[in-house]
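S1.2 Input.
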Amino acid sequence: MSEYQYYEFVAIDRPLTRREQAQVRELSTRAPITATRFVNEYHWGNFTGDPERMVERYYDAHLYVTNWGTHRFLLRLPRATLDPDVVDRYRIGGQVTVRTTGDHLLIDMTSDDYDGDWEESAQDSLSVLSGVRSELVAGDLRPLYLAWLAGVGPGEPGDAFDEEDDEREPPVPPGLRTLTAPQRALADFLRVDPDVLNIAAAVSPESTLAADDPEALSAWLAGLDAGEKHGLLLRVACGGAAAVQAELLGRRRSATATGQSAPGTRTVADLLDGAARHRADRERAEVAARERGRARQQAERARERERRLRGLAAEGEKAWDRVDALAGTGRSGSYDAAADLLTDLRVLAERGGGTAEFDQRIAGIRDRHRRRPALLRRLADPGITGGV
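S1.3 Output.
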């Protein structure tokens, strides 16, 4: 199988100028490039550009997917909207890295699963994933915690823990039990283990992030200093409307939110061990649920058969007439229907002590249709012969 790589970049805060688009075009002659988006696929070659450098200079979000198992999601945020020291708490190995560059903060999230199946839909994720950027700007740290959890990995029963598993988790943000659509997409893209997430969310406080109510927002804006308002309007006039909007909403939500992150008290080993137990309990419950489902289906089939047998018993001789009519058609489907009917008639005969008469009738059918080998094969079924 050939290699496959998918690259996508999007500009959110401001579109690329024509000059910037021309600079990006130098990196690829065939990629569809607009003022807000760059997309390219590679089946044999490689992209000659540096994705991190492109995000640093031009774009606000980057998605990278390969068919050998690498998923990468890179974000650029205005540095003023999120404290780098806060973000730094969620670093984990090479899976979540953070660095500052000029006026921006770059958050790099990677998941590698070289043994997993190729997910064809992963390259369609950026439109949803980019929503976590505005959530981070607004002070919602759940995406960072999810990325950290992805770096933790799954916990399997009997796993031996590494020394790194003594590391404590970062602060647990509110609302992990009620993820947004972009956050669910991020958890899927980074392959966050559902059982690890379930254990992690157990200590997460309820989310109380303030909604963007226009009246409440207006009242909050009225309290800003006049000089600050002038500076914000100047930035809007100079093309920074999206950045100003994100910054203001983030500040307002942070100022009015009452839910606080819970301090991280558990180690990685605690989370993995708890996830392994939760997985075992869940799998046992799933097995029990499947068994109950099968039992219900079997009981329903038994009730349906009893209803069918009662109706067949009420038919009397007409049921045997139907058998003869089906046997005489010469069609395979009719032979199957005749065999099913005879199987039920055999049950009724056994219940009523009339198996001798039943066997005589079967012998008569065989004799009348002795030139129909396909029918005779069906009449030899143990359900009709009684195992003889």
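S1.4 Remarks. The first strand starts at residue 5 and ends at 10.
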